[in-house]
Design brief:
The complex is a heterodimer of chains A (about 70) and B (about 550). Chain A has about 70 residues and is an alpha+beta fold. Chain A has helices spanning about 15-20, 50, and strands at about 5, 25, 35, 60. Helix content of chain B is about 35%, strand content about 15%. Classes of the chains: A alpha+beta (about 70), B alpha+beta (about 550).
């Protein structure tokens, strides 16, 4: 699972969902509106979400296939 | 027209990367109505999604003492082994510094703390690669564009240009979240959609683990092709080296170091010394990677352990601004230290990027279609146009499109446009209504198999011809079989249709070039480089349903 959201830190601002360049992040269709990765296989691992999250609530979990050392 | 929402502009820009944003910013200076249609979000999209740290340029007060613009053009043409439109290089070289100053005005730090430019020597005889803190260039360009009244429509994928008797009249787009169709009427259109990626399979096997933007699958190349515009050098591909299996956003930067093979031996021209060109994407270094793997010396590693701490800190600063934040994040989490550890490198899959293969333009960024302009990585004929190309061409295209729009009457949507809307929405509906079908991803994988097997590193007539047959069959099957469940899948399916068009162009152009030329193009049946007969561009265009290739002489003056 590429972006991993820390829901305690997440302010539900929706920035990650708005900027994801591969349209992989969506928000729950409820009062909470928390973000989730709807298309994890399409994650580019660009880190835009992690980089821009104002609450620093996102970590990237790199898949095994991306191990370099 | 069906249920499409109709909007109207004077200058319509397809793609909101560096080129698209610069085009929008400049066009608005003429007071005309400007829109950028961006498939993702302009704050984080295009080749500089997570940042860019380098931009080659000619700074008159610094370079004027050392060499002339003509010298720089000459060096660039030599780097491209002659296969370059020098008038485009001259335009970019001449205007590049003005655009650098614009970036400063837009709030980007182009200089170091002492107010000096960081210049590195790469492909020209003098240090011309300007390093700067460009991590947030897209955020800043987006803000500047909005401030000036550019209408930015994010999550909007253009599928087709609309034309009327050889002139563009607008574009057709689908909103990628809503799934709703939009018709944009416009007096002029600028295509700034970047390069083509996902055409070949990346070595890690993860479909989107690629070094360049996965949201650039050649939509601009395909729409220009379908509208009858001319493209250049669609047979040329380029390669890139980088951390093995870790392709993500952000690419090479200035990384001095040694390349070592698995036996610990340093490689490269200056083996044993810190080689500034260790990450050069030249034919020589690509070949080194291939030979090492094939002759028992592989893998190959990037070795920065011999650098000073200062050099490695600089590398980290550069990588951070170049957008390799995920890579740096990974290194930090895994405790990998450039001062102590070597990084395994590899050659990535073929791609179309950097202005080498794409839409043919002149120095006004005009294409062969009336009212249609192109800028940035989507163009053809200027290898390594990259950032300065996007900045300059974006600006020029924005200005020229705006000026032209002041002279033109409003666009009307004629029968041709209605036909295009009908065709595309019928295709979309068939994907949506199908009960049983296959996924867009299966079609993409099949296409990648075809490109790998028939239009890969080693080409030849029988392979290319077989590949083209398979591709055309795949397109028919994709049209008849793809099933989509969501608007997201619909736009992915449309991207696959773009990739199919680019694949067709690549193979068709490859058949036309009967020689080999560097790593970009190799044919086993014509293995030698033949400047006498083939120092020419191959142009390609659709005419009455037929795909025609021609030879275009290169202006050597």
């Amino acid at each position: 699972m590429p972006p991993v959201f820390n829901m305690d830190k997440c302010s539900r601002c929706g920035l990650c969902e708005r900027i994801c360049p591969v349209d992989a992040i969506f928000r729950r269709d409820d009062e909470d509106g928390r973000p989730y990765v709807k298309y994890p296989d399409e994650c580019w691992h660009c880190g835009s979400c992690r980089q821009d999250c104002p609450e620093k609530a996102i970590k990237i979990a790199f898949p095994p296939a991306m191990l370099i050392i | 027209m069906n249920n499409a929402i109709i909007k109207e502009f004077d200058v319509l820009i397809i793609g909101g990367g560096i080129a698209g944003c610069m085009a929008g910013i400049r066009a608005r200076e003429f007071g005309v109505k400007v829109a950028i249609l961006e498939k993702c979000n302009t704050s984080r999209s295009g080749g500089a999604t997570t940042g860019i740290d380098h931009c080659w340029t000619y700074i008159p007060e610094i370079h004027g003492k050392v060499f002339s613009i003509e010298d720089m053009v000459g060096d660039h043409v030599a780097f491209g082994k002659g296969m370059i439109d020098r008038s485009l290089v001259k335009m970019v070289a001449e205007q590049s510094f003005n655009r650098i100053l614009d970036l400063e005005r837009f709030g980007l730090e182009m200089r170091d703390e002492k107010g000096n430019f960081r210049l590195i020597k790469k492909i020209h005889r003098a240090p011309t690669f300007l390093h700067f803190a460009g991590r947030d260039i897209k955020v800043k360009l987006t803000n500047e564009a909005k401030k000036r009244g550019v209408v930015i429509e994010n999550r909007m994928m253009v599928t087709d240009l609309l034309t009327d008797e050889g002139r563009v009249t607008g574009a057709l787009a689908v909103a990628t979240r809503e799934g709703r169709w939009y018709v944009y009427k416009s007096k002029t259109v600028i295509i700034a959609t970047g390069g083509v990626f996902r055409l070949y399979r990346n070595p890690s096997g993860l479909p989107f683990n690629i070094s360049h933007p996965p949201h650039e699958p050649g939509d601009g190349h395909a729409m220009a092709f379908q509208a009858g515009a001319r493209l250049l050098n669609m047979e040329m591909v380029s390669y890139h080296t980088g951390p093995k299996n870790f392709q993500r956003a952000g690419r090479g930067s200035y990384v001095p170091g040694k390349i070592r093979n698995g036996l610990g031996q340093p490689l490269g021209k200056e083996a044993g010394a810190v080689n500034e060109k260790a990450l050069d994407r030249s034919a020589e270094s690509i070949e080194q990677f291939r030979k090492s793997a094939e002759t028992g010396q592989g893998p190959l590693y990037m070795d920065c352990t011999g650098n000073t701490s200062e050099q490695n800190d600089y590398i980290r600063w550069a990588l951070y601004n170049e957008g390799n934040t995920a890579f740096l994040n990974y290194l930090a989490e895994e405790g990998i230290d450039l001062n102590k550890d070597m990084i395994e490198f590899t050659v990535y899959e073929p791609k179309i990027s950097g202005g080498q293969s794409g839409i043919e333009i002149n120095t006004r960024c005009e294409t062969s279609l009336n009212g249609l302009f192109a800028a940035g990585d989507v163009i053809g004929g200027m290898k390594r146009s990259v950032c300065p190309g996007a900045l300059v061409m974006g600006w020029e295209a924005g200005e020229n499109a705006a000026r032209l729009s002041l002279e033109l009457p409003a666009s009307e949507l004629g029968e041709e446009a209605k036909g295009m809307l009908q065709q595309r929405t019928t295709m979309a509906e068939s994907f949506q209504k199908r009960e049983i079908g296959s996924s867009w991803l299966e079609a993409q994988l099949t296409l990648q198999n075809i490109m790998e097997d028939y239009a890969g590193k080693i080409k030849s007539q029988p392979l290319l011809e077989a590949g083209l047959k398979h591709l055309l069959r795949l397109r028919e099957r994709a049209r008849a079989e793809i099933k989509v469940e969501t608007p997201h899948e619909l736009y992915r399916a449309m991207e696959v249709m773009s990739l199919l068009d680019v694949g067709e162009m690549l193979i068709t152009s490859s058949l036309a070039r009967k020689e080999s030329r560097g790593v970009e193009f190799y044919r086993a049946d014509y293995p030698a480089t033949d400047d006498e007969n083939w120092l020419k561009f191959i142009t390609l265009e659709k005419n009455n349903g037929n795909v025609l290739t021609k030879e275009r002489p290169i202006n050597l003056a």
